[in-house]
């Protein structure tokens, strides 16, 4: 065990104190909470994820043996938002992400993924592959009457050409959805692995499917914490029964070494509904798994 107790860890993610993103993987909180969930409250998500990450600072990853302390990381704090102005907030997020070579974003609600993909698409000059862990397809054309919100993020990502839908795969889907939305999503070429299919086939087969869909070209990872069953992540705005166990998500991530991920986010942590930090710790762990893939 380390000489410093985890409760004394600095407040940055994994205790990171560096704030200069040059040559580093940047970590940023994006406390966006549009309030279109059944239970609003994601604004405090980044703080909770950072606090829970103190449990992960003592030692290397037991599979890859990557020690996060050896990684070039920089916690650059929170992105500025235009409170009450959804398009304005999305524009600000995109602007702040544009100059970052590799970003791990701590949400905030899932709407933050859209401007992050916009910034990355412009920087790379080509559509990205996309791996999504989620309970919901998030391909509604609008969300409770709003064009831009957490339920429409991938509709816009597809229609704006930010992602190659043929290289997009969603894991853990299980929420109620209109048939026309489901059919539209599949018609674009998206691969959907429902939670039931995930449980039936297992993480090894799912990871192989992910590798097949994404291929070798640049890709992005978006992890909505509600992909996990509420037993493992109660602190989220739209919990759905029948989800993934934490270990199942970890088992997939640990089988994705070598893929060309250019960034990731973990979103939809709502601390007001959490218990004993289990949701925040799960979110911090998924970011840690991503950083330590090897």
What secondary-structure arrangement, pairings included, does this model have?
Blueprint lengths: L24 E6 L14 H8 L20 E6 L7 H13 L4 E5 L5 H12 L3 E6 L19 H7 L3 E11 L5 H9 L3 E4 H7 L1 H12 L4 E6 L21 H8 L7 E7 L10 H14 L3
Helix pairs in contact: 1-9, 2-3, 3-4, 7-8, 8-9
CATH superfamily: Ureohydrolase domain
CATH topology: Arginase, Chain A
Major sheet attributes: 8 strands, parallel
Report the end-to-end length measured between terminal Cα atoms.
23 Å
The overall pLDDT, averaged over residues, is 93
In sequence order, what are the helices and strands, one letter per element? EHEHEHEHEHEHHEHEH
- Globally, the shape reads globular
Structural classification: alpha/beta
Proportion of residues in extended strands: 15-25%
How many domains, in number, for the residues? 1
Enzyme class: hydrolase
Organism: Falsiroseomonas selenitidurans
GO molecular function: agmatinase activity
Family: Belongs to the arginase family. Agmatinase subfamily.
General description of the model:
Keywords: Hydrolase, Metal-binding. It is an enzyme of class 3 (hydrolase). It is a single chain. The chain is an alpha/beta fold. The chain has helices spanning 45-52, 86-98, 113-124, 153-159, 179-187, 195-201, 203-214, 246-253, 278-291; strands spanning 25-30, 73-78, 103-107, 128-133, 163-173, 191-194, 219-224, 261-267. The protein has one domain (15-291): Arginase, Chain A (3-Layer(aba) Sandwich). Helix content is 31%, strand content 17%. It has an eight-stranded parallel sheet with strand order 2-1-3-8-7-4-5-6. Strand 5 (163-173), helix 5 and strand 6 form a beta-alpha-beta unit. Helix 2 crosses helix 3 (113-124) and helix 8 (246-253) packs parallel to helix 9 (278-291). The mean pLDDT is 93.
